[in-house]
Amino acid sequence: MESRKFRQFIEQAATLTLRQRTDLAACLNSTSLREQTCALIETTWRQACPHCGSRRLQRHGQAHGLQRHRCVACARSCNALTGTPLARLRHRGKWLTYLDSMLHSNTVRRAAALAGVHKNTSFRWRHRFLMQARHDRVGPLSGITEADETYLLESQKESRNMDRQPRRRGGSARRRGISREHDCILVARDRSGRTVDFVTGRAPLRHAQLQRCLRPAVDSAILLVTDGHAAYRVFARVSGIAHHALNPVGRGAGGRRAARAKRQRLSQPVQAMAAWSGNAWTMPE
Ligand SMILES: [Zn+2]
């Protein structure tokens, strides 16, 4: 903006109503937060083509506050977020506030309020930032590693494509046990406290999901400790990983009760995570 026009702009600012001034201040503030965020993203990027790995990049204009590059080797373009879970995530001016709120273990709803985004956005962001954290994570889980799964019943309530009536917190599924109404959440933690979590998908946990999610996140020399779910046993056998089942689930009510007690002991990180995400969750027997 020319300096003459800028002076006029400042003079006009005196005529703004209180509401307009507040809006202007919020706008300027979020712009500078966006600039800070973009600068941070640029400085932490290792400057390599996400498509072919080449480091021969040429500057190729700007888009949404980030430098675009064109790869000399494969001719495709990219920026610092291409190929990461944060690519195409909007409202960058709100990311730092949101991340700060996540680090303070706020719930999805509270984080949404603090960052000024819709709760559905907050839910999506939480998963994307967690994915990004794994993306950046150095080294897999090692040593004694506990894994456990739980099932979130109400996640559909948070999604855009809601195809049924919302259910009250802590409601029950229409079908008994674990069905396609549940999202399976897998949590694994080693003794150093390093924790990973995955939404493995709908319906009960299967071996293929463990191969996809858990295998890349763990060292092959771990001792995997679980509740003895069949999927873990198959996973451990196929992957050549040592496995200790805390509770080979027995038959009858006694067996189920014991399984539940053991499961409760194992699933502390799962419970903490469920509380954090602010969701009603249920753990079917
Ligand atoms: Zn390339």
TrEMBL record:
InterPro entries: Tnp_ISXO2-like (IPR024445). This is IS1595 family transposase. Residues 166-176 have a biased composition (Basic residues). Residues 155-176 are annotated as: Disordered. NCBIfam families: transpos_IS1595. Residues 140-268 form the ISXO2-like transposase domain. Pfam families: DDE_Tnp_IS1595. Residues 155-165 have a biased composition (Basic and acidic residues).
